[in-house]
Amino acid sequence: MPASYDRATGPAVRIGGAIARLLDVIAVMASLAVAGLMAFLVVARYVLGLSVVGLHELIMLAAVALYMVGAVIASRRREHLTVDWIAGSITQPRKKAAHDLLIAALTIIITIFFIVWAYWMFSWGLKRPQTTPAYQIPLWVPQMAIGLAAVGCFCYAVRDFINALLRLRRV
Question: What pTM was estimated for this model as a whole?
Answer without folding.
Answer: 0.80
